[in-house]
């Protein structure tokens, strides 16, 4: 099939019934881009001989060099199936874990997905991730089992062994889907039970069934007889569905194609005598139909062409299949060329995959109600609670209409940068006959003039110089303009409803836009600019995305993927566009990767700082996952998902966006500070007496009395720290306690709920009336119930109602408790107790309440060990006295009124305002209380998945051990010599890990690193030997490597803090040994 013209594609775009929006998802190196090449070649865009070698959709240079896809790119393909013509908007996505955010942006725009699985490696970690992403976005997947040739040539399996292996792979994939389905059903069941309990009155009978039996899940699973599985080898250009062989053999065997389709995969065999298909192949030791009719033929073809190179047998096969081969293919020295020539005619992979896509994947018209409601539910609000006008838009979604009156709704999933030369308006268009004749005539005239001038030797030097001089000045101004506008941003988007036209004006809805509030303001006569999170823009240009190229369009109907130019000033990364202000912003894209790797960036020449700032702003817009921060120190920090992602971002900054030489710091590794319960054994596992604990407390006392903190600090043996402000008017006593690990994890995962809770409490304190959605109330009540269930025991009695604040930044994993008996502060959970949410007269806040909270926030944001945030620490305020608070207020008022500083100003003036002193005192009290407990450092940890062969297993373990890694488990993939190792590795030790492991294993092992959790480093960073056994074991200096101290000192050195270390270790006099012979 030749390449479809732009006019043809525009026609196909008008029929949403025959449009398929799909993306290719898989683990890294499972053959996504090779398969995409085969599909692109079927449209004549590239040569079929180059499919798999060209990697057409990998348009970046670094993608070609590394051999991995780094960004998702789209292409529109035309395919005829069953007398109908289809338009396929195909998006190729990366498989590397660092770029999983690109997968999220692609999945949001699609209705279906091609999930690829390597026939040898089977289901890998990233395969599970992409299946979960497809499930969360409610898109339907179909399966391609790729690299089947590896079973024949690498593993050298027989056809029967290969059949068993393929069955296991299908079971693995279906197990992942089944797990996702089960969790969904159980959640729905739990909600239903809860509703029934609320409604039930009197005696109730409990139903013990989980609800799994009643739900039909047969359509979810991958099964060859359903036609949603393709077996393929994209690199050799072949692929098939069982349906193709069923149609082929039904004529030969005289069996109905439908019967053969159902029995070709499964435990069926052919009884040659009875000429019937019977069940029980395994029990009777017979060859299954799939092996006999399908795999045996493929195995014999590979045997003839690649293994034995039997020319006679090859000619026999070619003639029996009725294929025509070119003589150069038959003579070629590489048997793979001949093999792909035979297979691409006999079983073309593009036909199998594209026919499956057209038959099994849904069109934009088939979008489900559940998916629409999920997309339109803003934040914590239910779909039912949205305004009526907003709910009416649901019908526009479901109809996917391109009528003139249909509301235009577009979702932009990412912005990507394109060189201005690649835009269609700047491309050289082909010349017509008249233009060619005119240019020919001009060239002839110039040549004649030059010849005449040469003959007469009258070439005027002025005339030669004047024109180029003006041309030079023109040229010198042009590059500057080009430099400014070298990169243009195009929005990667999909039209969900209506017809988009060039130059059309639309609203850009920010993620916090509330349609109810927006509609109310607009109905009251407010302009667009006065509505928060709403702006208006025009769609300057519309593009058809064709891989490396763009084609300009005048209009795009609903259901299509497109590129939109001119949105760079209105959209940062993703946005919802609509002509109706009633449209809610879509739910944010679910990003799998957490940006964790930070580096500080500065230009080599300080004068180029503005260029770098502009370049970083462009990079932030072009990359869905990268984050740009400016720290308090003024450093520009780039946060990325991993090492490969970091390298790509830095290359983009240097070569595309900033175009300046940059200096990059060593990666800034995040740590957390925490406290733990006092250990029961010392460093040599001897049981501790009370002596060491007293020694630790005395040590803290000694440190605090050495002048760093004034003598107003008191630390009792129980760890209670009491501090008095410099003006002696306020005293605070604070105790630090470690939070249980489960509570810390809960607080960390519930940061959004805590943030919402804080905003509600702030509004109630300000006297505002709030209408909180039921889902938000449920989430807050759920958090409170979980905290109450986890904080059990005498120590934590009634502690949940005593919570004063969370920190740092008011939503972190640390708690401030109000243990004051004389201060009944309003509960943070007050929004749950009030049905109307109206401010009522409750216990008032004490003066300077905010100062205590601010001091706690500052202390938890930068701990005492190395100024890193705290985690899992509970600070209990057990005493807070402010003497004569009323005169203080009067004095403060008097001093502000008095001119030139009156003599009657308060005693507090020389120390500053009381609130400031109280903040400083509270911060210091928290830090001292933290140091009075056994302190530990927490390191960020990666989960590391490594696939390797048995030969290099020892080397993998060696590299992991050297880098403080810990193996959790390893398993061997059945039928292969491949091991799957799962380990945890500190982020601090991960830089250069992938490269080292590849070098040590000669490229046979490749790790996938994903941020997992925070883990306490067991060693005390400030440990010194105290008991006799420790002195004997570690020596007086105890100078063996302390990993925690090493990390603490590295962070302190980077931040410019004091580091206690000896510069000269052994100060012996140097002497030349040669002189003392």
Notes on the structure:
The chain is an alpha+beta fold and about 1100 residues long. It has six domains: about 220 residues, Rossmann fold (3-Layer(aba) Sandwich), CATH 3.40.50.300; about 100 residues, Yeast translation eEF2 (G' domain) (Alpha-Beta Complex); about 150 residues, Translation factors (Elongation Factor Tu (Ef-tu), domain 3), CATH 2.40.30.10; about 70 residues, Alpha-Beta Plaits (2-Layer Sandwich), CATH 3.30.70; about 200 residues, Ribosomal Protein S5, domain 2; about 120 residues, Alpha-Beta Plaits. Helices cover about 40% and strands about 20% of the residues. The protein contains 33 helices and 34 strands. The strands form seven sheets. The protein has an eight-stranded antiparallel β-sheet with strand order 14-13-19-10-11-18-15-16. Strand 8 and strand 9 form a beta hairpin. Helix 10 packs antiparallel against helix 13. The longest helix is centred in the first third of the chain and has 41 residues. The chain is globular and about 100 Å long. It starts with 5 loop residues before the first helix and ends in a 22-residue tail after the last helix. About 35% of the residues are buried.
